[in-house]
Amino acid sequence: MKQFLFAERLAGLRKCMLEKEVDAVWIVQSENRRYLSGFRASDLQITESSGSLLITRDLCFLLTDSRYSEEAAGEASGFAVKTYSEGIVEGLSGLLAEGRVPSRLGFEKDYVTWGLHQELEKRLQELPAPVQLVPLSGIVEDMREIKEESEAAALRASGKMLCAVMEATIGFMRPGLTEREVAWKVEALTREVGAQETAFPPIVASGPNSALPHAVPTDRVLKENEPVILDLGVKLDGYCSDMTRTVFLGEPPDDFNEIYGTVRRAQAAALEAIRPGVESTFVDKTARDIIQDAGFGPFFGHGLGHGVGLAVHEGPRLTPRKSVALKKGMVTTVEPGIYIPGKGGVRLEEMVLITGEGIESMTPDPKVYEF
User: Fold this and answer.
1) Residue 263 neighbours by CB under 8 Å, 6+ apart
2) 20 to 30 A from 216, CA-CA: which of 19, 198, 222, 366?
3) What is the number of other CB atoms lying within 10 angstroms of the CB of residue 91?
4) Residues spanned by the domain of 297
5) pTM of the full predicted structure?
6) Are residues 128 and 160 in the same domain?
């Protein structure tokens, strides 16, 4: 079943190769590499690679070094593993020199650094038959937007695990703890429930810090009756989950009743609007108009949501800008927020799967307030 899945994905990629008029593609991005081959190793930084894929019209190669050769052979059984010793450029150009050299080689322009591109271009021009590098964007990411049933199942499991982490974190919090102590607890709970790791560094933002959408946990002490934004995610078997709750340690201040209620209504309206065929910008506008009409428009500056899968941020994007038609099988977050500088903020986030008629929540944790 697994090999059939990878074969289907490769067939889809090769169809795209024909449309882009390239003879082969070079895949370096780690989630794209895993999606097409099953090779799970990650890259620690942009200038350090654990491997890449060379896919032609009829052959598949996984290029890596001796650190990963054995696991590559075990995980990417549909690929011929080639181990290089002198770096990724020499490995790729050496492999191309061994066989039929493609005249047009597509590469992921969003992930190949300028330095690597220059080095590779120079080396490829030295081959007996020079190779033209063709920049491509989204060639695999567009495929990843539609989740197969096995991926949906993995995301459900990840979301369920995240709900357990969120519930335990809220139960752990009390006045007197610091944001950093709560974040450390999230890290521990993630391992305790059996997750692979956190999908991103947890956000724990209290009081005025909750007005920072991507606040970094500090030594600020949690206090009674103020908002605490918890934006958490876990990763399970490579698949991410993402959920945000805003909680109060005690009774919410009266002015936050209106803020929270506005965010809640905006999120509910957006969730109701999501279905196949609807434009992503319409869903964003549905939530944004409610926040605007309540007088908080200037305090909601980010997009409404993003896709989740092997990466915690992927397509589709729910923003006021580029519009895409939503499709069955897409997974997206819906996370409106209001952030008042110096005072605090509220964000609520659900992760949902788009079904044939609407949505299925993958983070059905009920910890929300009703005002």
Assistant:
1) 246, 291, 336, 337, 338, 346, 347, 348
2) 366
3) 21
4) 149-361
5) 0.93
6) no
